[in-house]
Amino acid sequence: MNRWIISADRRRSNPEAVRTELLNLCEGVIGLTIEFLDDAQANAPDAGKFRDFAPLAKVTSDEERILAWLLEELVATFGWAIDVTRTSA
User: Fold this and answer.
1) Is 11 helix (H, G, I), strand (E, B) or coil?
2) Residues 13 and 78: beta-carbon distance below 8 Å
3) How many other β-carbons are positioned within 10 Å of the β-carbon of residue 72?
4) Crossing angle (nearest 10°) for helices 15-26 and 64-78
5) Cβ distance 86 to 16 under 8 Å?
6) What is the mean pLDDT of residues 4-13?
7) Spatial CA neighbour of 57 closest among 2, 1, 8
8) CA–CA gap between residue 36 and residue 34 (Å, rounded)
9) Which residue of 24, 36, 37, 75 has the fewest CB atoms within a 10 Å radius of its CB?
10) Helix (H, G, I), strand (E, B) or coil at 71
11) Is the pLDDT of residue 11 over 90?
C-alpha cells in the first residue's frame, strides 16, 4: 500500500481550491482513497520560511502510478505550491 501526504503552501495557494481539485480528480478512480487533514492544515505552525507547506490530505493506493498521476495533475494546476511526502502505510 502506498500512502502520500499532499501538502499545500499556505502563502501561495488556496487550500480550499486544492481540496476541491483533489475531490474532482479522485472521483471515480478505483483504488484511490483520500483523507483530508483539516486539523493538521489549520494547526500547523508557520515555519517562517519563504514557503509554508502544511499537510492537506493523505492519499492511498495500491498502485504508486495512480498517486504519481494525481501529483502530476495537482502540480499542473497549482505549480510548486504543492508538495508530497511519502509515508509507510
Assistant:
1) coil
2) yes
3) 10
4) 140
5) no
6) 86
7) 8
8) 7
9) 24
10) helix
11) no
Amino acid at 9: D
C-alpha cell at 34: 483520500
Three-state DSSP string of 16-42: HHHHHHHHHHHCCCCCEEEEECHHHHH
Per-residue confidence (pLDDT) for residue 3, from 0 to 100: 95
Write the Ramachandran bin of 22: left for phi over 0, alpha for psi from -120 to 50, otherwise beta: alpha
Distance of CA 68 to the CA centre of its chain: 11
Specify the pTM.
Answer: 0.82
What digits encode the pLDDT tens for the residues 26-41?
998 999 999 998 765 5
The share of the chain scoring above pLDDT 70, in percent, equals 84
Q: Which residue has the higher pLDDT, 10 or 67?
A: 67
Q: Copy the grid coordinates of residue 2.
A: 502506498
CA distance 50 to 66: 30
